[in-house]
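Exercise (ungraded).
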Amino acid sequence: MPGLQDASSQDSGTYNYAYLDEQTKRMIRRAILKAVAVPGYQVPFGGREMPLPYGWGTGGIQVTAAIIGRDDILKVIDQGADDTTNAVSIRRFFAKVAGVATTTRTEVATVIQTRHRVPETPLKEGQILVLQVPIPEPLRMLEPRETETRTLHALSEYGVMQVSLYENIARYGRISKAYNYPVLVNGRYMMSPSPIPKFDNPKLDRNPALQLYGAGREKRIYAVPPHTPVKSLDFDDHPFEIEAWSECCALCGSKQSFLDEMIVDDNGKRLFICSDTDYCQERQQTRQKGES
Amino acid sequence: MTALPILSARSVTKHFGSRVACRGVNFDLWPGEVLGIVGESGSGKTTLLNCLAGRLLPDEGSVTYGTASMGAVDVHSLSEARRRRLARTEWGFVNQDARDGLRMAVSAGGNIGERLMAVGARNYGAIRRTASDWLSRVEIDLDRLDDQPLTYSGGMRQRLQIARNLVSNPRLVFMDEPTGGLDVSVQARILDLLRGLVDRMHLSAVLVTHDLGVARLLTHRLMVMQGGAVVEHGLTDQVLDDPQHAYTQMLVASILPV
Amino acid sequence: MNALHPVLRVSGLSKSFVMHAQGDLALQVLNEIELEVAPGECLVLVGPSGAGKSTLLRLLYGNYRPQSGSIRVRHRDAWVELVGAEPRMVLEVRRRTMGFVSQFLRVIPRVAAVDVVAEPMLQLGASLDEARRRAQFLLGVLGIPDRLWSLPPATFSGGEQQRVNIARSLIADYPVLLLDEPTASLDAENRNHVVDLIRERRNAGAAIVGVFHDAAVRDALATRQHDVALLGA
């Protein structure tokens, strides 16, 4: 297995397995259990100092560290790509402190930590998706007081979010929120799905995998258990819509995945390419096999 | 006459430390009545209003609200959820400063539509139509529907606050100096508007004011407060034309003639 | 229309004004007033200035509070005691049963004359059209030119304001009418119109209590007189 290293042969002998001490892992697991028991509800947890600053995925890392085991296979993506600096760093980190096997293949991973995208390849029961969250409170921009947002969640008073969508339509003629699009989990709690594009929201609905959300700076964990309804907010006469492109992926020809727009030369030539690198490569390989 | 008062106060008392803000207030408000509470600064009228509206917990006494279909409920024993829901549906509260009762960075349409959306309205077109209808009822130009109250004058903001409260067809409206601080002509417009709306919607209201002219125009009954106590209470024109208590007589005599 | 059955009964009515600012000085104005009025009667209150005629009218309307006594009015086929009554009861009686023409029109800004007049009828449940039509009719009878109907009366002359006042008090058919110098600021022609309207009401069965300084008006309308200055009689 690529990247598999024996922990004891590293100087990571000064760190506990997966970096966090056992008590911390227990505390985080308790928080995760609570989160799973109340889908979409933000559970406070005692976030620890991690070897990277806030804003770089400390929440996601702590969740992964609490659940990962020697038999797991870890995939880490950042904006859909396995090969950006952050994804590589985090993957290497866990390889070192947890001695786990790592992979870029969505299909074979047991734990997938991600920043700002959900993999295109459909997930399966038994897989765990760990999402990195900057601001866990979906109402934060509308109501700055934590005391008040907690009350709003407790009383299920979400009118203010509906008002913000109304404002969108009044100002732009349509709901313009393109990422971090608010959802209602299990018909009860409003949740921020993290800054994933709204394109990915439908993937969260009744997903057979377990979704865990970790916010390190804000010290909150929340979860969506497998097969849970997740509905994006909208109006009857302005229903929720995902993005569409007029182009398909320049590398693999996909018309169904989220495309990044790349500027490839000094003359402003643009290409549209799948943001999910693993998905794109799989499709390219299948195509090649098909052609050969 | 209906069987249940819409609002009842019994011995409502509130202290702030050793200072008694209001003391032993009793009344029954019947559907369709507008009760005025007049007094000078420090009389306790705003404290009383806040106790009645469930915003302040009285130290003694009780406030009872007569619901439309479920009998009388003690306002301060309600769960926070229920009280908040009541405040958004069956009640209104018009603040003296419209900024306290509006979302200043949300458009007029959004402000008016909020109560509707809070109870589940999900059709943008319908919400917008209702909001427009209310905007014209409070005499604000329809082309201001998408503007924020930040861009409105004081009088417009106050009229918007009124619309925001009345869109849910409340049965009971609390008003704290609704025309305080506004120009006289603007006041006249708003008072006329309130008169018409209270009449047409058969609202019950509790109105706090220091202006006896406002009281005469809008209220059916009047309570005069001095130093936290109700010193006189009765039919508005009677209290103003035939004041019995020394303080009331002094108040009435103090109005500057025009 | 039975002269034997009064619709307004006053007994033991006494009124003093206590001026607290003047060391609680008490001024007794009325003492143990007794009177009755039946449908079709116009009881005129007479007496010198300051005797309490206006005060008595205001007491009957619930505008002043008596020190003691009883004022009962026939309202919806039952006797209602107005002294000590709940405000909403007094307002209900005023809406349906008792009208009052005061000497001064209380001017409300922004409300058009036709709407000032129409309001009492609207309160009784009439449609806006119906009420406005009747208001226009009355304003016409009272000589208010139609170009003034949609204007607020604040800028009208004293006589015009008074006529608007009268129209407002007569638009609903009150079984009991209280009139306090209704023709005081009117010229002869308009005075006659008002007298005609009031006489019409009286003949149709209204019970009227009035104060009229003008002898001619008194003679045209009165069926009986009551001297208010006879204290304790």
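Further reading is listed at the end of the chapter. For now, observe: Chains C and A do not touch (no CB pair under 8 Å). The CA atoms of residues 20 and 26 of chain C lie 9 Å apart.
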